[in-house]
Each structure stands twice: as structure tokens, then as C-alpha cells.
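Re: weekly structure request thread

Next one in the queue (85 aa):
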Amino acid sequence: MKAQHRGDKAPAPATALSEACQTKLKSSISISTFPQCVEELLLNSLDSEPNCISVRVDVSQAFVQVIDNGQGITQKSMLKLGDRY
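Done, posted below.
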């Protein structure tokens, strides 16, 4: 089955974050519990206005995966990545 994307455009390829961006993320986000991690990932997913969200959780492996078919992150939003709103 072919994945459906908005406008039939393939998503942009993922690229590594700059060291400055990585540092900002590490210093501005504090997630101290597993449920809080899942909640934050779901909230981020909902921000992308998806029509489908998939969540996989394995507490014994400390694993969580959230996949959506939302709009993705715009270039403008990338500049705000890690900031509280």
C-alpha cells in the first residue's frame, strides 16, 4: 500500500540539526516521566493537523514512537524548535 501524503508530495528528507539547535533543545526541554514524553509527542503530532496518528509504546524497553501524516515542520517553525509556546 502506498503512503498518502498531502498534495501527493514526498516529505522533505530529514537532516541533522546544527550543534546550536541541539544545545538549545537540550537546555530548554525538561521531560521527566515516560507518560510526559508520550504526551509531548502526541501534542506535537496534533499540531501538524494529521488525519491519522499511530502510537507504539513498549514501557519495558523505554520505547515510544509517534507517526502521523500531518503537514510537517515549516522552515519558520524550525527556528522556534524547542521553544515553549
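The chain has a mean pLDDT of 79. Residues 20-71 form one domain.
Next request, please.
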